[in-house]
Specification:
Layout lengths: L5 E5 L4 H17 L4 E7 L4 H7 L3 E5 L12 H22 L3 E4 L5 H10 L4 E5 L6 H6 L5 E4 L13 E3 L6 H4 L5 H7 L8 E5 L6 H8 L2 H5 L4 E5 L2 H11 L7 E4 L5 H7 L2 E4 L3 H10 L3 E3 L9 H10 L5 E2 L5 H13 L2 H12 L6 H16 L1
Parallel strand pairs: 1-2, 1-4, 2-3, 4-5, 5-6, 6-7, 8-9, 8-11, 9-10, 11-12, 12-13
């Protein structure tokens, strides 16, 4: 093929959409250095900052999600959708993509729809065990659907489904530090077991409350905790802890190198986003999942239960977490046999090289058409 590959990657809204998208782009670039990749996101969403930071160009569409509580507000949402479809057509005319990739999120709907109307091959990547609305709508129009879970024929045509797993942040898999070195770099003790608590950004509220409600239990536990509070909550939490003396509780607003934190931890407490779960599967890390209730169609609970039903994770509901989460975590981390079983079972559910597998399929679609 004489001309360079031109690929549109569309979607975003959360890190769970953006990290896989960037991983796919990087894997394409590793195969075709000269590939021209353009991202299309939603204006005002986090991809408009994260994608340029990763070294890729991005264009924004004014698309927004539908308001399910106030139907009258959707008049303006529909206007923005039609405007986004027109803008997507303009991007196609200007960039002339050979293939389009959708990773879910607001922008992927109009962009992938416009590409499919023009006969451009399309691939969508569904991270969750419960398919998102945009991907369900697009399913009939696309060539291939890459999924991370079994049973996705409930949402998509069976003949289009390919199980590839979810791409993860490569730096998590490339941490060469030993557990001892990771603990030392975090100023933690090597002779204590370690629980890592990560709740995302705004999703951290319940997990944070679970810790604040159980400070005495943590203090007496003979276990050390790494607590990522999220930047939004950090200042208030530090204020509430200033009269407490809990040497086995390390409080951080944001963990820059999550690979080191995972390496240091014997057990992780986390929300049940698809990207996080894929990371735990690949590194074989025992985990307690507390699904966020504030997500579309409660898909985090469905993600969590796909692991729990295979003995690969422990489930604690958001409602029960303040009362039972810390007690459950301390009990689990002191049970070596349970930790070993959780680690073994979750690792069997990981699919390595997901980004490379998807990149290969994207390139194949482009070459078949040209």
């Amino acid at each position: 093929m004489s001309e360079n590959l031109r690929i549109v990657i569309s979607g975003g809204g959360t890190g769970g959409h953006i990290f896989p998208a960037i991983s796919i782009a990087n894997a394409i670039k590793a195969r075709y250095k000269e590939a021209d990749i353009l991202f299309v996101g939603a204006l005002g969403r986090m991809e408009m900052q994260r994608v340029p930071q990763a070294g890729y160009e991005i264009k924004g569409l004014p698309v927004r999600g539908f308001d399910r509580k106030n139907l009258f507000k959707n008049i303006s949402v529909l206007n923005l959708l039609f405007k986004s479809l027109r803008m997507a057509g303009g991007i196609i005319r200007e960039f002339k993509p050979m293939v389009a990739v959708g990773v879910g999120g607001y922008a992927s709907g109009p962009m992938l729809y416009a590409c499919s109307k023009k006969g451009i091959p399309c691939l969508i990547q569904e991270q969750n065990s419960y398919a998102g609305v945009a991907n369900r709508i697009l399913a009939k129009r696309v060539n291939l659907i890459c999924v991370a879970y079994d049973g996705m024929q409930r949402f998509f045509p069976q003949e289009k489904i390919m199980k590839t797993g979810n791409p993860v942040r490569q730096n998590l898999l490339q941490t060469n530090l030993s557990r001892e070195d990771a603990l030392k770099s975090l100023s933690l003790k090597e002779n204590l077991k370690t629980i890592l608590i990560v709740g995302g950004s705004l999703g951290a509220r319940t997990l944070n409350q679970s810790i604040l409600d159980n400070l005495d239990l943590i203090r007496s536990s003979k276990v050390q905790f790494i607590w990522q509070t999220g930047k939004y909550y950090h200042a208030d939490i530090i204020k509430r802890l200033q009269d407490q003396n809990i040497p086995n509780l390390k409080v951080m607003d944001f963990i820059q190198d999550m690979g080191i934190a995972y390496k240091a931890a014997d057990l992780v407490i986390s929300r049940a986003g698809a990207s996080s779960i894929s990371e735990f599967c690949l590194i074989g890390k025992p985990v307690i999942l507390v699904p966020s209730p504030n997500v579309a169609e409660d898909h985090q609970t469905k993600n969590a239960m796909s692991l729990v039903n295979n003995g690969a994770a422990i489930y604690v509901s958001d409602m029960d977490a303040p009362k039972t989460l810390i007690e459950t975590a301390i009990k689990t981390i002191n049970n070596d046999e349970e930790l070993m079983d959780l680690s073994f079972n979750i690792k069997t559910m990981g699919i390595p090289d997901s980004a490379d597998i998807i990149a290969y399929e994207v390139i194949k679609l482009a070459l078949e058409k040209h």
